[in-house]
Amino acid sequence: MTNLTISLDENTVRKARLRAIEEGTSVSAKVREFLARYARGENGDAADSAAGAVKLPIFNGGQGLAPGLDPLSNKSLRAAAEEDA
Q1: What is the overall mean pLDDT for the chain?
Q2: Cβ distance 30 to 24 under 8 Å?
Q3: What is the structure's pLDDT at 72?
Q4: How many CB atoms sit inside 10 A of residue 64's CB?
Q5: What is 21-76 written as a DSSP string?
Q6: Which range, of 1-10, 16-25, 27-36, 59-68, averages the lowest pLDDT?
């Protein structure tokens, strides 16, 4: 295995460490995972990571948005996606 040195601002590293801890992993493991996908030519976007793309239930056959969905609210859209899962 090869070591790689990168430079990042302290705030990014702190947030990445906290998130990795919450996910039960390490920043090194997440970087390895990302670089492996990147090297294979797979999409490395954060929105498409781990669970993959989520189909959002925002259209109900010509009637517009499903009741209660706010298209400007990520929280509203995410809650709708989690209900459908």
Answers
A1: 79
A2: no
A3: 86
A4: 11
A5: HHTTS-HHHHHHHHHHHHHHT----GGGSTT---------SSS-SPTT--TT-HHH
A6: 59-68
